[in-house]
Amino acid sequence: MKLLAKTHYGLEQVLAEELKGLGASGIAVLNRAVAFEGSKLLLYTVNYCSRLALSVLMPVSSFGISGQKDLYNGAVAIEWDRYLDPGKTIAVTAVVNSPHFPHSGYAALLVKDAIADFFRRLTLRRPSVDAKDPDLLVNVHISNNRVTISIDSTVVPLYRRGYRRRMSEAPLSEVLAAGLIALSGWKPGTPLTDGMCGSGTIVTEAGLISCNIAPGRMRKNFGFMRWKDYDAALFRSVRFDAEKRERKSPAAIFGSDISAEACAIARANVRAAGLEDTVEISGRDFFESPPPAENGMLIINPPYGRRLGTPDMDEFYGRIGSVLKHRYEGYTAWILSGDMDSLRKVALKPFRKFDLLNGDIECRFQGYELYGGTRKHKNVSGA
Question: What pLDDT is stored for residue 304 in this prediction?
Fold first, then answer.
C-alpha cells in the first residue's frame, strides 16, 4: 500500500527515519508529511508505535481537475464499497489550496455528496454523516489542480496518547515533545531533565522512549479498526510484539517546576503512563537549584511571547543562559522558544538549530554544548 504519515512542521526528517526503522520502504519526505509504502501490518504498526506521526492516511485516488465538477466526478468514480458498507457513517475533511475552491468546506461537501450518490446508485441506500465519530474518515487534499483523496486510518490523532489526565497552561503536543527528543539525539542511557516541565509532556515522552513503551499502548481505538478488511488477529500480534520489547529504563529522567500545581499535574500524567519508577517530578526553581544529575541532557520549553510571557523576557532568558553556563557543565542543553529576540539573550553559541511550529507559533529549537573551563582538547560534535 501507498501510505502517508502526517506530522508537525520540522519533524519530517526524524519521522522518515522512524518509519524506516519500523520497516517502511519507498520513503519520500514532504511538507508536514512523509509518504511511504508498506503492508497492512506496517499500517497497524505505524499507528501503534510511531511517536512522531499525527495520523496515517491511505490514498485511494489521485487525479487532476480543471473545475469543481471534476472533483465530484473523480470522487464518485472511486469504488467506495471496498472501504465502507452503506449502513455505516462517514465524515469528510478537506485541506484546499486551489483557485477552484473559495473554501475547503465546499470541497468536502462535494466529496460527501459523491460518496452518497455512489451508494445510492449501487444499493439505494447511503451512509449517514457523523462528524464526531465516523466509521470512515475521508481526507481530501487539493493543491492547485491536483486532488488526493485518502482514508484516515487513525481518526483520533496520535498525539492523544491517553496518559494526559490534566494539562497546565499552553502544553506541548505529545508528538512535538517526542520530536524534540528525537531532534536532540538523546539516547535512553543518558539522564534527561526538564527544569520547566509544566504538565510533564517532555519527560513523560522520554520515559515512554526509555522504557520502550509504544505510544499506542493506552489507546483503545484506531480508525482502521472499523475498516471492512480489519484483521483483529494481526493487530493483536502488533500489540504483543510491542509489549515484549518493553524494558526497565536504563537511566533516570527528571522533571521539575516552580509551580506546585504544574508538578501535581505532571505527577498525575506520569502516574497514568505507568512511569512512576522512571520519571521523578519535583517542585524546584530552575534558577535556584542544582542539576539533578552530574551530567546528561536538559530540554526546556520556557515561556515566550504569545504563550506564557513574563514581564521582562530578555532578563528571563539571560538568567537561563547564566544558569546553563555556571551550573550545567557537562550537559547538552536544548531550548525551544518562539521568542527569537529573547533567545539571543541566552548568550551561548548553539551547535544546532531547528525551525519548528508549536501550534501556529514559529519556534526555534537550539542545542548548546556546555563545557567547564576551556573547550580546548574537547571533542565537539554536532552539525
Answer: 80
